[in-house]
# Entry
Amino acid sequence: MIVRISNEGQYELPDEDASGLNELDNKAVSACEAADEASFHEVFGQLLDYVREKGTPVPDDELTGSNIILPPADISLAEAQTAFQGDGLIPG
# Structure
């Protein structure tokens, strides 16, 4: 699967890493629903780190569609509350 981090780039992750992404995404949704800014930023940072650590960067000159698009690292809680709702950003 291809995951794009907005303003950063794309990463290719094995499909078996989808469950780990989904777990972190669900935690981000819970933090947004609770309006817990500190928890959201902590778990969202973990989500981005997971993608960076488990993924292989896709070269900039390679045109590949993204399966998942994550907001940039500096997203605010208010912005996140509109993105991280219901099932979140990652289909589970």
In short: The beta strands are 2-5, 9-12, 56-57, 68-70. The mean pLDDT is 91.
